[in-house]
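Board notes (copied after class):
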Amino acid sequence: MSQPTEHSNDTRSLPDLIRTLVDEVRSLFQAEGKLIRSELNDKLTQVQVGGGEIAAGAMCLLVALFVLSQALVAALTKLLAFLFDTEAATSAQAAAGSGWAAWAALIVGILFAVVGMVLLNRGRTNLQAKNLVPERTADQVSRDAKLVKEQAR
């Protein structure tokens, strides 16, 4: 004797079952479509933010280059005046500003360089391929495939 299955009491006709199947598949695809659109919008925003961070980081590094160049010029002016002309040393100090100006430029340049590097690294991380994969959608599709396989048994 065979055991009755839970579907043996189902009195729906074959066309009704097919219609139900088509409706469920359609709603599944619509839900998956909404999920992937939402996740792709999130990833697009992540790409835009990453690009902005890279651009901001590059600008900070450019400013750091200019400021560090200014510090180098001030330091070289003082060094050359000290080495070659002691009388000019006082005028070089006046031209380069106080002794703290070169140090201040150096500190500011280093700070800009650090901020620029942090922004570049964050932007690069946001733009890595592994961070742009729509993981939620892939997980959901995998779960749906498992469920369909289990239901087909």
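Comment from the instructor: The radius of gyration is 34 Å. The chain has a mean pLDDT of 82.
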